[in-house]
């Protein structure tokens, strides 16, 4: 029995690649917007790794995104006149077509919340933009660390006063689910085979023994009896 579902957001719930590229194109028409968005995203994990490894204290993801933006702009040889404004692109990401309706179905039967590396502020603004009907905001900031560290998943369970086996982690990324499973959570894999574009090779199919595999949030709701 699942009492709560917690969700990866970037890639699982929202299309960051196309959405960020759209904002880049508006701000920096002289660059390849998709290439810039992908390069910006590529800085995401290395920036968090320094924090996960203890080389730096916790810094909210919005701040890391801004630092990474300056680095990528330098690499592309461009100047961003309003970096704070462009950084807000990460708060304006379009949901995949199945997400909002699927979340509403799931929410009728269980608590739903993000378990994202995004900060509370970022997740709140993104939810308002994309219409994501969360019950609360969980994830990295309440843990003071970044996924896939075990403590991030357990902090979300603890905040809900639920044992890990009563909570299901939903993600399009096998490594995210593997870490959640190791922490004792149930798991659901939702493939997003174009998250990284048409040439994507990683995470196009499940690579673990997940509790549920579904092709979208509506199918997930059906599998859970919602």
UniProtKB/TrEMBL annotation:
NCBIfam families documented for this protein: HAD-SF-IA-v2 (TIGR01493), HAD_type_II (TIGR01428)
Top-level taxon in the UniProt lineage: Bacteria
Catalytic activity: an (S)-2-haloacid + H2O = a (2R)-2-hydroxycarboxylate + a halide anion + H(+)
Role played: Catalyzes the hydrolytic dehalogenation of small (S)-2-haloalkanoic acids to yield the corresponding (R)-2-hydroxyalkanoic acids.
Keywords: Hydrolase
Signal peptide: none
Organism of provenance: Lutimaribacter marinistellae
Sequence similarity: Belongs to the HAD-like hydrolase superfamily. S-2-haloalkanoic acid dehalogenase family.
InterPro entries referenced in this protein's UniProt entry, alphabetically: 2-HAD, HAD-like_sf, HAD-SF_hydro_IA, HAD_sf, PGP-like_dom2, S-2-haloacid_dehalogenase
This enzyme's EC code(s): 3.8.1.2
Protein name per its UniProtKB record: (S)-2-haloacid dehalogenase
Keyword Protein transport: no
Coiled coil segments of this chain: none
């Amino acid at each position: 029995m699942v009492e709560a579902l917690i969700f990866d957001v970037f890639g699982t719930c929202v299309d960051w690649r196309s959405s960020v590229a759209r904002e880049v194109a508006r701000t920096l028409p002289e660059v390849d917007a998709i290439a810039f968005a992908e390069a910006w995203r590529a800085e995401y994990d290395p920036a968090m790794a320094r924090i996960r490894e203890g080389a730096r204290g916790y810094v909210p993801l919005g701040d890391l995104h801004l630092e990474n933006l300056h680095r990528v702009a330098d690499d592309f040889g461009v100047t961003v006149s309003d970096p704070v404004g462009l950084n807000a692109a990460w708060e304006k990401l379009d949901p995949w077509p199945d997400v909002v309706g699927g979340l509403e179905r799931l929410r009728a039967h269980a608590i739903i919340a993000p378990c994202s590396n995004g900060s509370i502020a970022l997740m709140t603004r993104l939810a308002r933009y994309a219409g994501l009907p969360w019950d609360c905001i969980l994830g990295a900031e309440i843990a003071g660390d970044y996924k896939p560290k075990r403590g991030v998943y357990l902090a979300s369970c603890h905040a809900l006063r639920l044992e890990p086996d009563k909570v299901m982690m939903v993600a399009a990324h096998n490594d995210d689910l593997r870490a959640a499973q190791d922490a004792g959570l149930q798991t659901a894999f939702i493939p997003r085979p174009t998250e990284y574009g048409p040439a994507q090779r990683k995470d196009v199919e499940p690579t673990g023994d997940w509790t549920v595999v579904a092709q979208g949030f509506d199918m997930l709701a059906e599998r859970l009896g919602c």
